Amino acid sequence: MSTRFAVAEPRPYDQPYRATRPAFTWLLEREVVRFLKIWQFTVAGPILSELLFVLVFGFALSGHISGVEGVPYDQFILPGLAAQAVVTVGYINGTTSLFDARRDRYIHDVLASPVRWWELNLALVAGGAIRGLLVGSGILLIAMPATHLQVHQPLVLAVAALAILLAAGQLGVLAGSYARTLDHVYSIETLVVLPLGFLGGIFYSVGELPEPWRAISHLNPVFYVVQALRIGLLGRGDISTTAALVAVGGLAAVLTLWSALVFRSGRLLKP
Amino acid sequence: MGSHAIPPALSIRGLTKTYRGGFTAVADLDLEIPDGAFFGLLGPNGAGKTTLIGAACNLLRPTAGQIRIFGHDHDSRQARQLVGLAEQDINLDRFLNIDQILVYHAGYHGIGRREAWRRARELMDLFQLSAKAKSPAGALSGGMQRRLLLARALMHRPRLLILDEPTAGVDVELRQELWDYTRRLHEVGTTILLTTHYLEEAEALCDEIALLRGGRIVARDTAAGLRRDYGARDIAEVYKRAMSEP
Questions:
Q1: Which of A160, B3, B28, B133 could disulfide-link B99, Cβ–Cβ 3.0 to 4.6 Å?
Q2: Hey, are the CB atoms on B109 and A37 less than 8 Å from each other?
Q3: Pairing relation of β-strands B24-33 and B10-18?
Q4: DSSP one-letter code for B28
């Protein structure tokens, strides 16, 4: 170890805390740097995965599947596929980021610092939202020209996207807080997130289901996520625009409140 | 040594921590470490050292008690900016390079980008980590990871530096270098709380030593005072007698 340099004196004990740059921005930057370092797996992979569905169901099988309510099938499934990708990516980002930090204990570096609980919460969620936005945008930017889909209700799409990104990010952060093992993380994705996605009306119109399956589908939160994006992109869905936006907005609000309570109490981050 | 006008670096009153499952690691613990001290905390595994440190550093939620850092509530931002912690476990962010680990740590303390990079370069130079600046933490040897932990703890110029077994698993040379460096930090006014299983380390470095057993402080004095009180040749003997007392 070099002894060439003078040791810096410690800061005064009565110096008020003043951030030259808000700690939240550093935390958010770290979250983005983390997933961009392995972008092939975190961004490109999910985009490719969903585009394969478009390729297979939308193009390869298009001759065998007629449209839904007059909408070509490749266009019909695209909003749901984008929704599924955003929800999955938001969930995985939050869980892996927070779970990793807890398991390897480098979250201690943050907990011991002046970072406030809501800054940590917000940075984790925003990181997931940014990743979700990149993935969702990537899917739509590639698939929309290929399927000749145009945005019918841009304002609805924007509001829906915001609420969905927030909800997905908070879901991931909550799962990352509660998970005790990596198996928990992946089993929730496999047993909960994925099935809810597939049963949320991505590939079919829920309105065409017989009862009681139609009613049961209305209990699935992913159903409203799919509907909100479908209405924004196609201009129509199985429920009204108001119902879709209220549902996804409410979902985002509930998850945000739950997450805030968890982080504020610190009981899942600190023993 | 610290002036009497400066509040204690660490003031703990009635600290109790009972974990889920019912295990009580510390019970009604009082401890005060004055500003400018080089304080050693010795005790066997399970004595409560890590719990005490965790409570002071906002890593766990005390069941009861009050903790103040230089007069500030321990979970206030003002207190948090005054404490630096190098933990026993190697808890480095495996997604970041060495230089990023240091810079982001500075960022968590609200330091601006330019100053963070300047300080990171300074500490990487000092701890001979510059050649590995763009490497992930996992690529470092154990000794280099220990140096990085210490460098990280020092990025924001803490006034109270807590070192939890800083020389565990390092070679004799590096241990001596770390001793020299912590002595220099102490000379310029940093209060140091050191936990260690190397009793000679505590005896060589610390102004005062406390012995912790079963979540309670069973003895506290200078090394010479402890030897005298226990009629012992060295701290190792003091430790042995203190830990075997009923």
A1: B133
A2: no
A3: antiparallel
A4: E
**Residue bearing the bigger pLDDT, A213 or A173:** A173
Residue with tokens 């009580």: B24
Instruction: Using CB atoms, pick whichever of B81, B159, B191 lies closest to residue A17.
Output: B81
Q: Would the pLDDT of B100 be above 60?
A: yes
Amino acid identity, residue B197? H
Print the domain residue range for A225: 23-265
Q: A9, A41, A107, A109: best mutation site toward chain B, by most B Cβ within 10 Å?
A: A109
**CA pair distance B144, B184, nearest whole angstrom:** 20
The residue extents of the domains of chain B are 1-82+158-246, 92-156
Rounded to 10°, the helix A154-178/A221-234 angle is 150
Rounded to a whole number of angstroms, the CA Rg of chain A reads 21
- Summarised one tens digit per residue, pLDDT across range B74-88 is 999 999 999 999 999
ipTM: 0.93
Residue A192 pLDDT:
87
Crossing angle of helices A241-265 and A154-178, in 10° steps, is: 30
Judge whether A109 lies within some domain.
Answer: yes
Q: Which residue has the tokens 């506290």?
A: B220
Nearest to B83 among A3, A16, A112 (CB): A112
Q: Between residues A54 and A247, which one has the greater pLDDT?
A: A247
Torsion of CA A97, A100, A102, A104, to 10 degrees: -140
Which of A2, A13, A116 lies at the smallest CB-CB distance from B82? Answer: A13
Token representation of residue B14: 């009635």
Q: What is the pLDDT of residue A1?
A: 54
Look at B125 and A2 and tell me if their CB atoms are within 8 Å. Answer: yes
Contacts of B82 in chain A (CB under 8 A): 10-11, 13
Q: State CA B111 to chain mean position distance.
A: 22
State which fold the B1-82+158-246 domain adopts.
Answer: Rossmann fold (3.40.50)
Tokens of A27: 């935390």
Report the predicted TM-score, pTM, of the whole model to 2 decimal places. 0.91
pLDDT for position A63: 72
Residues of B in contact with A98 (CB under 8 A): none
